[in-house]
Design brief:
It contains 16 helices and no strands. With 403 residues, it is an all-alpha fold. The protein has a single domain, classed as MFS general substrate transporter like domains (Growth Hormone, Chain: A, Up-down Bundle).
């Protein structure tokens, strides 16, 4: 078995690698569109089926690791993810892409809550666990976008190589996670209880519910923006900003998520009372800058806006993960994080699918600008919810003293 520090590193690597699959196809979408001639709406359908499959996994096997242990669920999910990458590599049309996305989505959904709980279980300190578990999604997505963009532009087999590489990585990680010691959990349930746990369900322990519902607008705001970048981002960069290099498209997409890692790190050195508001403030400012960049077709300004918005994405999501990690009982973290990711991926997919429909009617640039304005409104709602939650906590803290 691995030591605790090595286990933490392997769990973090698995978390990042899992989300690498989410962005790896993004720089290739314009290539697929030209090759197979499908519409912007079909593109968003290809994007959305991934999320619907992911949600199905979260609703069925999302909390399974709380009963069976983290290792078997994480390993099986990584093997399934390798299969999804192989399906991408051999895809010969829209149907093949949809099949690959369905397998990929279910695998990511099975892995996401489990690997997040595994990171928290093996972390030397709870704060470090929340830092890493909130940073690895952005890290993985940034790596996927940049790696795919570079290989499409410069490598042989531009539509296949990235998927062969990722399939090999997932198989290696599927073996390594078996060497991570299991965290604390209740005695394993009987097989009948395990089978019942596979019935579609989502839930939260009572202790985590107030925190979760207060954070729901924040989770929605961060992941809705990520959904825009990964669904229509490459089209915006290529069409509105007139960038024709796949590598540059991958870099620009990766900038947002790389900045998310920096935002996660920056939030840890800020005073606790400022962390939430730093995330929301930079998220709003970054979105406003990117809207201005799209209206003026200014690529440098768009990159600046992506960096600022990415800082907000990382800081806001880290705050949410940390707050939920503190509120969730250790033996139910898999369930809590699975539920968090259900909300995250609904926000990730449904607005992006609506945007794909809107592109057909009003065009790409007006749709992206309107999406940005709606994002600002959602962040303002998150700020309001944060203020209400802060006042509630203050009132609860003062009640014993006044009694």
């Amino acid at each position: 078995m691995f030591s605790r520090p090595v286990s933490f590193m392997v769990a973090g690597a698995a978390g990042a690698a899992t989300l690498t699959a989410a962005s790896a196809p993004s720089p290739l979408y314009p290539v697929y569109q030209r090759l197979w001639g499908f519409s912007a709406f079909t593109l968003t359908v290809i994007f959305a089926v991934y999320v619907f499959a992911l949600l199905a996994a979260l609703l069925t096997v999302g909390s399974l690791s709380d009963r069976t242990g983290r290792r078997p669920v994480a390993s099986a999910a990584l093997v399934l993810l390798a299969l999804g990458m192989l399906l991408f590599a051999i895809a010969g049309g829209t149907g093949g892409l949809i099949a690959a996305r369905v397998v990929q989505g279910f695998a990511v959904g099975a892995a996401t809550g489990t690997v997040t709980a595994m990171i928290m279980d093996s972390a030397p300190r709870p704060q470090l666990g929340s830092l890493v578990s909130s940073a690895v999604p952005a890290l993985g997505i940034a790596i996927g976008a940049v790696l795919a963009g570079a290989l499409v532009e410069f490598a042989p087999l531009p539509r296949q190589l990235v998927f062969w590489i990722l399939a090999a990585v997932y198989l290696v990680l599927a073996a390594l996670v078996w060497l991570i010691p299991e965290g604390s959990r209740p005695e394993r349930a009987a097989h009948s209880s395990i089978w019942r746990s596979l019935l579609p369900s989502a839930g939260l322990p009572p202790a985590a519910r107030p925190t979760f519902f207060a954070l729901l607008p924040s989770i929605g705001a961060t992941w809705a923006l990520a959904g825009l970048y990964l669904s229509l981002g490459s089209s915006v960069i290529g069409t509105v900003l007139e960038v024709h290099s796949h590598f540059v498209v991958g870099i620009v997409l990766g900038v947002f998520f790389a900045a998310g890692i920096a935002g996660t790190a920056v939030s840890t050195v800020l005073p606790p009372e400022l962390r939430e508001w730093f995330g929301y403030g930079t998220l709003i400012l970054g979105v406003l800058i990117t809207i201005a960049a799209m209206l003026t077709s200014a690529l440098p300004l768009y990159v600046v806006g992506s960096v600022v918005a990415g800082l907000g994405f990382g800081a806001a999501f880290r705050f949410a993960v940390n707050a939920l990690g503190e509120a969730a009982p250790a033996e139910q973290r898999g369930q809590v994080f699975a539920t968090m990711y259900i909300a995250s991926y609904i926000a990730f997919s449904v607005p992006a699918l609506a945007a794909g429909l809107a592109v057909q009617r009003v065009g790409l640039e007006p749709t992206a600008v309107t999406y940005g304005a709606a994002e600002v409104a959602l962040v303002l709602l998150a700020m309001t919810a944060g203020l209400i939650q802060a006042r509630r906590r203050t009132a609860e803290d003062n009640t014993p003293r006044s009694a």
